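Quick one, probably user error.
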């Protein structure tokens, strides 16, 4: 019999410790006890509200810009404000976020200029920020590919002895990809410090959740040996507390965590989509009632922390940011076409140099070989 070369690990215990589950109602809403345990201050609640107001206004401006012919495409985030703002604010600045293409509000919370983000949707850039600078990965269009990136990065941090946690986001449609399952398994086996945040908006373009997933997404966590929790994805405070507790759990060396934020995409998939062709007005109206911003305002009022002046200042700031975003976008120049090559290899092989020069000569002969 072959001799074992490494110490076999004991099988994990059957019961998975879940630090969040007992603090939520059956609908996945943080209870008063949950608020107490999570120790969320009024300032944090105000920050959640403020960023959601900003995100909604910027998103509306993105839509306006597309309708005015300034953007090729826009993917609205309405209905996702709570999960994106709650998720991003819950992470430390030193943590990494591996987003998907809809995480516009997360990018804004991370300090990335939203006008720069829009240059991608105008076709001027392939990427508009340095991921290392913001600890925020690129927007990925291939569904699910960011999930293994987040797991690999988290595992690297663990091996380096850092206490960094990664957060990765994806839609429920992404949970059908092989990348997602492989990443979940790898994270579970190697106890990578990663929080998986599924923004389940119940639609993958025109495919409804019941044609996408058999059973519940959250229940898949157990199959990969990690805890999971399903939360109300329209309640920013609940998301914030859940992501915070999940990241604490990962940071403490207890491995990955899956959060399913159950909500709804209030707008179209992108500006190329017409959702009235596949979903009813009643369904959309029902979800509009659960507006994340109104929910956060309600929580502030319930705590006696609501203030009209504060709310007005959020609106004014959102207006100013929207105007600045528009100006940045329309003033932006396209990247040199060679840049996509230049950012791929530090030392490109000769064949790629030739390909680059041919590409540049075709697209921008006036630029010559500048910009390398
Ligand atoms: C690998 C891959 N397959 C298909 C597509 C086309 N596509 C783009 S978005 C999308 C739906 C994804 O839905 P979901 O993951 O639920 O995210 P949502 O857009 O609803 O936020 C699909 C199928 C793609 N971009 N990549
Ligand atoms: Mg979806």
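Nope, works fine. Designed sequence:
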């Amino acid at each position: 019999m072959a001799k074992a070369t490494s110490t076999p690990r004991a099988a994990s215990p059957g019961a998975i410790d879940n630090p969040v589950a007992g603090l939520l109602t059956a609908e996945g809403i943080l209870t008063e006890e949950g608020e107490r345990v999570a120790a969320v201050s009024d300032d944090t609640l105000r920050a959640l509200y403020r960023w959601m107001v900003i995100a909604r206004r910027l998103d509306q401006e993105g839509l306006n810009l597309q309708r005015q012919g300034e953007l090729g495409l826009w993917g609205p985030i309405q209905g996702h404000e709570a999960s994106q703002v709650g998720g991003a604010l819950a992470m430390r600045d030193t943590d990494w976020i591996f987003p998907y293409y809809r995480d516009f509000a997360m990018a804004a919370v991370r300090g990335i200029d939203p006008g720069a983000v829009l240059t991608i949707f105008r076709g001027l850039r392939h990427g508009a920020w340095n991921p290392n600078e913001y600890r925020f990965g690129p927007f990925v269009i291939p569904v699910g590919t960011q999930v293994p990136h987040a797991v690999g990065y988290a595992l690297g941090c663990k091996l380096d002895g850092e206490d960094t946690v990664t957060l990765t986001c994806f839609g429920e449609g992404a949970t059908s990809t092989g990348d997602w399952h492989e990443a979940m398994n790898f994270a579970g086996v190697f106890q990578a410090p990663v929080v998986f945040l599924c923004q389940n908006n119940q639609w993958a373009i025109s495919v409804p959740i019941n044609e996408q997933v058999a059973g519940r997404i959250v229940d898949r966590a157990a199959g990969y040996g990690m805890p999971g929790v399903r939360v109300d994805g329209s309640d920013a405070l609940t998301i914030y507390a859940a992501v915070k507790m999940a990241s604490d759990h990962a940071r403490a060396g207890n491995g990955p965590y899956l959060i399913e934020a159950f909500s709804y995409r209030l707008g179209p998939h992108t500006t190329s989509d017409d959702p009235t062709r596949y979903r009813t007005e009643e369904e959309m109206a029902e979800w509009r009632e659960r507006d994340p911003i109104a929910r956060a305002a309600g929580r502030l009022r319930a705590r006696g922390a609501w203030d009209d002046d504060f709310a007005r200042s959020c609106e004014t700031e959102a207006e100013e940011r929207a105007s600045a975003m528009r100006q940045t976008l329309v003033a932006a120049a396209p990247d040199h076409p060679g840049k996509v090559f230049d950012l791929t290899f530090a030392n490109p092989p000769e064949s790629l140099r030739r390909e680059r020069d041919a590409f540049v000569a075709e697209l921008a002969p006036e630029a010559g070989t500048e910009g390398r």
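The chain has two domains: 21-332, 336-372.
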